[in-house]
Write a structure and sequence with these properties.
The protein is of the alpha/beta class. It is built from ten helices and six strands; from the N terminus they run E-H-E-H-E-H-E-H-H-H-H-E-H-E-H-H.
Length: 233
């Protein structure tokens, strides 16, 4: 069975390397991380990932989790099980979504003005990533994999400001779903709990750490995915 990994904003597929390395893999298991496609809108990007990866357990972190969720809503036939790590279903309130869209576009201007290295350095200095050690944040790998156009595309076209909110459609998910959050990430703990309440077959898993769990706690994330794989096989 394939396990497909989708990275978060600004992250290359290699951001999943430590999780994949820690994942026990029975014979026949293919654990593969995908680069987020460039240039299309949110729905098309999720569909493209599904076309590339096929039927699988889909694991997504943050932006990657939102893409995995979109795919699961649109193509449940491809998603054997869903693992959402520090992810949200989008912003329901139209006013808040417009504000987020404006903020994302302001960030896009900062990317072009500051350049990718300086912007990402400032991005990772946010309180959201306070528990992420700088030496494991993969700043150099992010810079190497992202030019300004690619980063702006992820910020705007794949951001929560442009994403159709899916919170009211979570009850449509037929597959088993695991939502993983960090105990120090109070905002996403609340989001994760609310998501699980709306999904028919879901569980919330809190682990030590903050928001960037695949980089902070790859072993714990791998153990959770292994349990999903064992239950799905």
């Amino acid at each position: 069975m394939r396990i497909a990994f989708i990275p978060g904003f600004s992250q290359p597929a290699g951001s999943w390397d430590h999780v994949i390395a820690a994942l026990p893999r029975p014979a026949g298991t293919d654990a593969t991380a995908v680069e987020v496609p460039h240039g299309s809108d949110f729905v098309t990007t999720a569909a493209t990932i599904g076309e590339r990866m096929g039927t699988a357990i889909y694991v997504g972190y943050s932006m990657g989790g939102r893409l995995a969720l979109r795919l699961a809503i649109d193509r449940p036939d491809l998603v054997r099980a869903l693992v959402l790590v520090s992810a949200a279903p989008g912003i329901d309130d139209p006013s808040a979504r417009r504000e987020r869209s404006t903020l994302d576009r302001e960030h896009a201007e900062e990317i072009r003005a500051m350049g990718v290295p300086a912007f990402l350095d400032a991005w990772l200095a946010q309180p959201l990533f306070a528990t992420l050690p700088r030496d494991t944040a993969m700043l150099d790998a992010r810079v190497a994999s992202m030019d300004a156009n690619r980063l702006v595309h992820q910020m705007v076209e794949l951001g929560q400001g442009e994403m159709e909110p899916l919170g009211q459609r979570l009850h449509e998910l037929p597959m088993p779903t695991t939502v993983i959050v960090g105990r120090a990430d109070t905002r996403y703990r609340a989001i994760g709990s609310a998501m699980v309440d709306r999904i028919l077959d879901a569980r919330l898993l809190e682990v030590e750490g903050g928001h960037a769990l695949p980089l902070e706690q790859p072993g714990l994330v791998a153990a959770a995915i292994a349990a999903v794989h064992a239950a799905t096989a």
